[in-house]
Every structure is written in structure tokens, then in C-alpha cells.
Amino acid sequence: MELKNRITQVFNSQKERKYFQKNTTAQYRIKKLKAVKKYILDHQTEIESALKEDFSKAPAETLLTEVMPVIAMINLTVKKLKRWMKPKRISSSLLFFGTSSSISYEAKGQVLIISPWNYPFQLNLYPILTAFSAGNTVMIKPSEYTPQTNKIIGKLISEVFDENEICLFEGEVEVTNILMEQAFDHVFFTGSTSVGKIIMEKASKHLTSVSLELGGKSPAIIADDFSLRTAAERVVWGKFVNAGQTCVAPDYILIHKDRSAEFVTAVKEQIENRYGNQFTQNEDFCQIITQRHAQRLKDLVQDAKSKGAKVLFGGHLFENRKFEPTILIDVNESMQVMQEEIFGPILPIVTVDSKADMVKFIQRLDNPLAMYLFSEDKEVIEFFRQNTQSGGLGINETLLHVAHSRLPFGGAGKSGHGRYHGHEGFIEFSNQRAVLKRKFDGKMSYFYPPYTEKLKALIDMTLRKLNYFF
């Protein structure tokens, strides 16, 4: 009861502030963003230590995948926010003679952000700061699996913001349920598709708009014209960074059957080059977040083996929750590893006879959050672009489209809806208010009742000549 009362108290205090927050200036918001940036840079070592303690993440990887995207986002927003906040003038046709039109970008209001554990620093602060930049108040529920990272984010928030602007609540599913009872203006959720459905259902009780950043099985397609060594190098980076616990990691490989053996050899070489062969002691390869998550990965491998798959590399779960990078061949769609998002360092290799077979395989599955295509052939690239659908498309690279702060990020279909990052993020957390102002009499009164025969004839003529009015 105490927790529920506390959440209600903060929600109500943010509700009272909502219209003040909506009308804060660009200068006010930019000042806060700069304070966040300063705090991050001043406490860099503490951030690195927090991620290290939560799941043994290498400091360099923390800076590269957690801190750098947030700093890039702040830099871009500081540079562009004044322009983003300005109303956008809309041209008017002759039909609207005597009026001016514009779109006013206004805060949605009170925003709830429910964030995941896999990139706990980036995936908390990125949407928090984006929502704040659009003039919203924010309540955050981070994952309970990363307590040390949550602690430093909580300190940052309490130092830079008042709690009626931004407030963090830790806890398990009970906290999420209490938060979802409140009538927020917008909910932003990052996590699994199954939980996303629950969030969307709960939000519907208040007709609250929802952004869902989910996941799916993101394929990596190796076309016949592309260097296997280069493809292997880039796939190994994208797949095994963060021990595969990345929503846009390459989930499986699609490759022609005649090239698969050589590709597997190249992947093995890259794994050994990057991580060596002593994974329990390797400081660059992080842990699986919990023992339960690690056991799930082990079960996926066992299920695949029981149905005919072969493990060509790795497959071991160690006592310190480190799961060895694993390559599977001879996989099929009856295996759990090919039915659900893997979210770990397991790489199935699917062999086919043609690029048409690759497309058919992708089309049988739900739309993924990302798709990766390795080809220099423009016709091949266009073939896959036209015949598939995904939230993002990386050509000859993995993950980088997500790091690009000027590109929109989001899913398609069951991998999510809504977009954020850069200007698209500002729009996602804004109400695009249509504004039309009558500046002088344009004689619209001619079209008011009573609807005489003469007026009907005028409307008929206008309808036939409508194209001349635009």
C-alpha cells in the first residue's frame, strides 16, 4: 500500500506540473541535457563499474554500446532542439484562402517508460531524455536485474531533475502493474513481444498511446557475391557483443549451401581472434544476465541437438553464467531455436539453394526488428528490400543503424511499432497539433446553410474543378 500511495503521489505531482513542463523553453531543456552529459562524463568510472557488477560487461564495451549512444543523442538534441520545437508552417490551397496553417509540436504529457535489462544504461536514458526534450514529465520502471546500473541512473536523475519532472521506481512486476493502473498520456516499452502485448492491453483501459520496441528473429543474409571473411567478421561482432543479448543481433544466418562450410570456418576464426578460447576468464565477453536466462539458452541447444542439429563450435554453459559462443548447423523450423528470439550467443546456420528460398524462409516468420544483408550487387539488394519487411535494414554491416542517432529506430508488425532516435524520437513523444487560423474573410460563408439550388450548383462546380484549387 505504501508503494502504491507513493506512485500515486508522484503521478499526481507530475500531473500538476504537466502544463508547466509542456511550456518549458528550449533553453531550459538544453540546460538540463548538458547537466546530464556532465554527470555522465564525471561519473564514467562508476558507470563502468555498475555494468561490470551487474553482468560482467567490459568497460570498453560499456562506453561503446551504453554511454556513447546517449552522449551522441544529447549532442544532437542540444544542436537541433530549438528547430524541432518550432511550429511547422503548412502551405494552404485556394480552397483555404484567407487562412494560415501550421503544426505545433507539443508534449504528450505524462509518460511512463518501462525499460529492459540488456542495455540498462542506454535503454533507460535514451527514451527518458527524448521524452523530456519533447516537454513531457516521465516516470521510469527499469529492470530489476540490473540494480547497480539502476542506482547510478537514480542518482543522476535526482541530481539533475525534480521528481515532478522525472522519477524512477525500482521493483519487480508488481511495480509495473501499479504504474500501469495510472492514466498516463503515453507508455514507452522496450522488451519482449509477449510482455509488450500485456502492456498494450493494460494501456488500452485508459486509451493510452503506446510505443513498443520489441524484438524478433533478425536474419543475416550472406549473398553469393560477398566476401565470407568480411561477412564473418561483421556478423561475429554483431552477434556476440553483449553475449548476444541484443534485440537487433543477427539471430540466424541464411546462406547458400555450397558456401556454408567455408563461412563456418571463417566464423570460428573470428570468434577465436576476438575472444580467444578461454571464455570463463575472458573479460571482453560478458555474462548472461541470470542463471534462469542461461539455462534457457542451454535448453535451446539441447532441443536443437535432439532434433538433428549439430554443434560445430561452443555450446557450453559455465558456472559463472558465461555461455560459450555457439554455432549450430542442420537446423530446421521444428526446433525452438528457430521459433523464438534467441537473445544469446547461439548462431544457427540455415542453408538454402537460392535467394528466392531465403526470401520464402524470412516471409514465413514474423517481421523482425532488423535484417542484415551482405551483398555489393544492387539488384540483389533491391530484391531483398522489395520482398521482405523489417524495422531496420543493415547492408554490409550489423547493429550500426541503431547507433545512428539521426536514423529512426523501431520495429514492424510484431517486432514493435513507433519510432525514436533523433527527430523521430521527438515526434514520437509529441502531439502534432494541427492549427488553422482565419486571417481575413475568405468568403467561406458562401458555403453555409441554407443549401439553395444555387449553392448546390456552386459546390458541384467546385468539386469538378477541385484540382485547380490545390
Report on the structure:
The protein has 470 residues and is of the alpha/beta class. It has 2 domains: 2-214 and 419-431, Aldehyde Dehydrogenase, Chain A, domain 1; 219-406, Aldehyde Dehydrogenase, Chain A, domain 2 (3-Layer(aba) Sandwich), CATH 3.40.309. It is 45% helix and 17% strand. The chain has 16 helices and 16 strands. The chain has a 7-stranded mixed beta sheet with strand order 10-11-12-9-8-13-14, sandwiched between helices. Strands 5-4-3-6-7-15 form a 6-stranded mixed beta sheet, sandwiched between helices. Strands 1-2-16 form a 3-stranded antiparallel beta sheet. Helix 8 links the parallel strand 6 and strand 7 (209-213). Helix 4 packs parallel to helix 5 (122-133), helix 5 crosses helix 15 (422-428) and helix 9 crosses helix 10 (260-275). The N and C termini lie far apart (60 Å). The model has no long low-confidence stretch (mean pLDDT 95).
**Oligomeric state of shown chains:** single chain
Strands ordered across the widest β-sheet: 10-11-12-9-8-13-14
Output mean pLDDT. 95
Distance between the termini: 60 Å
Helical stretch tally: 16
- CATH architecture annotation of the largest domain: 3-Layer(aba) Sandwich
Please tag this protein with its features.
Aldehyde Dehydrogenase, Chain A, domain 2; 7-stranded mixed β-sheet; 16 helices; 470 residues; 2 domains; 6-stranded mixed β-sheet; globular; Aldehyde Dehydrogenase, Chain A, domain 1; alpha/beta; single chain
Could you give a quick summary of the protein structure above?
With 470 residues, the protein is an alpha/beta fold. It has 2 domains: 2-214 and 419-431, Aldehyde Dehydrogenase, Chain A, domain 1; 219-406, Aldehyde Dehydrogenase, Chain A, domain 2, CATH 3.40.309.
